[in-house]
Amino acid sequence: VFLNGYVYVIGGFNNKDAEDVSPNTINSWEWFSHYENSWSEVWPISHSRAFAAATIRSNQYIYLFGVFQGFNILNTIDKYDCMSDHWLTLNLKLPAASAKLGAVAINDDEILILRGLNLSLKKRQKIVLKLSLSSKKWTSLNDMKIGKTFNWSAFYYDNYIYTIGGNEKDVCER
């Protein structure tokens, strides 16, 4: 994600991508300053992760939703405050464990979650959820037309959500 002049890269893998190799997710993160044209590694975050969705809110917070950790998919939500330079794992959870999902802040109080992969269903999800940060309540919205997995490929512009690829046909949707 891009926030206040920095590109943040959070989590990932540090193993060979092969069928016989177990996934090893990492708990590191770093940022790139376009002002200084340099990368900085930051201390480890609370737990290792890959395929989490990230969005920014109020030009101060990064929210991370869902996580692929080893062979597990979790329902965690983490929040980073760039002013205090602090990570917090929230008590609030996703309604179901998900990874490769999309997250888009549509205003300072609401974030849309576009559900990607859920291991129990073993297929791409069409589900769209809205989270109100003030009430801490989830609302189901109309499903997407096609189930998708996301790798940062959803964005909000001019009151529309755009999704790019993430399916067998690489279909874009508005």
- How much of the sequence lies in strands comes to 35-45%
Find the structural class using helix and strand composition: mainly beta
Rg from C-alpha positions?
16 Å
What is the molecular shape? globular
Separation of the first and last Cα atoms: 21 Å
Helix and strand element order: EEEEEEEEEEEEEEEE
Question: How many DSSP E strands?
Answer: 16
Q: Could you name the ranges where pLDDT drops below 50 across 5 or more consecutive residues?
A: none
Average predicted local confidence, pLDDT = 83
Q: Please report the number of helical segments.
A: 0
Strand order of the largest sheet: 1-2-3-4
| Main beta-sheet strand count, sense and barrel state | 4 strands, antiparallel
Proportion of helical residues: under 10%
Detailed description of the structure:
The strands form 5 sheets. This protein has a 4-stranded antiparallel beta sheet with strand order 1-2-3-4, with no helix packed on it. Strands 5-6-7-8 form a 4-stranded antiparallel beta sheet, with no helix packed on it. A 4-stranded antiparallel beta sheet has the order 9-10-13-14, with no helix packed on it. The mean pLDDT is 83. The protein is mostly beta strands. It is globular and about 40 Å long.
